[in-house]
Amino acid sequence: MKALLDNKYFSLGLIILISSVLFIPFLGNCPLFDWDEINFAECAREMVVTGNYSNVQLNYNPFWEKPPFFIWMQAASMNVFGINEFAARFPNAICGILSLCMMYLIGRKIYSSSFGLTWVLVYGGTLLAHFYFKTGIIDPWFNLLIFLSFYQLLIHFNNPVGKDGSRSALLAGFFLGIAVLTKGPAAIVIIGAFMGAFYGLNRFRKLTETKYVFMGLASLIITGSSWFLVEITRGNGEVIKAFFDYNIRLLKTEDSGHGGFLLYHFVVLLVGCFPTSLLMLMSLKKSSNDTPYQKHIKFGMLILFWAVLGIYTLVNTKIVHYSSLCYLPMTYLATYSLFKLRSGEYKLRKYFAPAFIILSSLIGLAFMLLGMVEKLKPFLLENNMIGDKFAVGNLKADVHWQGWEWLIGLLFILVSLFSYWQIRKGKTKVWNYLYGFYILFILAAINTFAPKIEQYSQHAAIEFYQAVAEKGFYVETAGFKSYAYLFYSAKRPEHNQNPEAIKYIAKGLDDMEKMGYNRLTSYSLAYLNWMQYGVIDKPAVFVCKINTAEDLLKNRLVKKLYEKNGFVFCVRMPYDN
């Protein structure tokens, strides 16, 4: 078997087969989550509906927040599989397969086939790292492209004047340019921070020749600016300006309430990537047995990890997946630590035992409590232990549980602690079995808990949107931001073409622009105002949260239909014009 695993093509085939089984099945077993998943899926749906693939739209208006590369992939998937959850998430499943293959090939080149396979195992058994390949958000592809650019730079810096100097410089620029087309200039900031730190910590020694700098920049500019230049020549310069304004605003302010404390991402990575995060910390110890090339790669991985973590620690907007690029260098460094433990060069540190026991117990306990939520619900509601009326309404959702789900968390604790007991006795191969168990745990947890969380948090609203889709009513949310109503009501472009609406909304946007509001960002508010007060030709329905419904119902034209699970559903009829 070892001879087979040492064969590159056999191992790649095995990785493709297993990762396909891990990432592709059950992608569509749960509705998309607001905001990010539905946001990008809706942009892709509108591409398919309108046949306009050149520029990104949301609510059939220019969308300035993201470039189109990932959305193109989702649109292509929807053309194959239909407009549904599976199609929206499928590109990231493919990204997962490619990412694991990349890890194996890089690990094999630096150390051995065994190292590459272990890196794949560690990444697959790390909760947050695994989870994002089963979502419809941009970050997995963004991370893969940045990492490919980073790796080409490492190759180049190791041998800047060798025969591959031109190739690595061009590929680094190319992958970085595609990353820019995927999520924006954050890619350049990350790679720029890495290069600055790498150059500075190498005491400003020359890392490459000027001609290679120009080659890399040319490759970056040609790929990264291509779509932006096309949009500018098409007269969409205002959208491009709004795009860059938005990215700058993310750095300076808390976007849409996504704030957090300074060390937010440290906690996310420590807990969400357990036990990989603890193993990664061990890699900070130097090794005298590595070759110069292996030291070079490890040094680069450490810099990339801390550069990404540092950037998103300073950014005021705090969202879990912002630091997800850290998963790649973190899992590499954790694999490095495992190999040093097996060789006897590393020993478990004193902090490792209490940290492992506490974190594994807390994570398992969290899943146990989640699995017992229906049993805990009466206690929480009767004792008024939740202050938010909307959260209370969510918790009242009728969700079917089998009753055994809490055992998933208990099993996590028992297997983790037993495995660690064996590891303490010197059986380091147990790490492989433990990560294999974590892969199974992650699959069980995602497929068990994600659909139920969705039913508590948003399903009542999505059911309503789907019912509206059959009738073609006007629909908007009031008092909270959402993209679900667009995707699940299957809104058509003609819904934005009512002549009365166009006139009313144009005047509203003019007024808001005079008051200093951005015209592009104010369309939904102007549309909502028209639905409430303008002349409508068919029913206009509104969805709001229970704690803000009173504001909407102050309008005597709007009548309450019903409320469910924290949402209030209202309507305004056309004869009330």
Describe this structure in words.
This protein is mainly α. It has 5 domains: 32-137, no CATH class; 138-252; 259-347, no CATH class; 354-457, no CATH class; 461-576, no CATH class. Helices cover 65% and strands 5% of the residues. The chain has helices at 2-6, 8-23, 36-50, 69-81, 85-110, 113-124, 127-131, 139-158, 165-183, 186-201, 210-224, 226-233, 237-252, 264-272, 276-282, 292-314, 327-343, 352-371, 373-382, 389-395, 406-424, 430-457, 459-469, 484-488, 499-514, 523-533, 549-553, and strands at residues 57-58, 61-62, 474-477, 540-545, 559-564, 567-572. Strands 3-4-6-5 form a 4-stranded mixed sheet, with helices on both faces. A two-stranded antiparallel sheet has the order 1-2. Strand 5 and strand 6 (567-572) form a beta hairpin. Helix 6 (113-124) packs parallel to helix 22. The radius of gyration is 26 Å and the shape is globular. The mean pLDDT is 89.
Features:
5 domains; single chain; globular; 6 strands; 577 residues; 5% strand; mainly alpha
Report the radius of gyration as a whole number of Å. 26 Å
Instruction: Describe the strand arrangement of the main beta sheet, using strand numbers.
Output: 3-4-6-5
Global outline: globular
Give the N-to-C terminal Cα separation. Answer: 76 Å
As residue ranges, the low-confidence spans are: none
Total count of domains: 5
- Number of helical stretches of at least 4 residues: 27
Mean pLDDT: 89
Q: Based on DSSP secondary structure assignment, what is the total number of beta strands?
A: 6
What share of residues is helical?
A: 55-70%
Find the structural class using helix and strand composition.
Answer: mainly alpha
β-strand percent reads under 5%
Instruction: Specify the biggest β-sheet.
Output: 4 strands, mixed
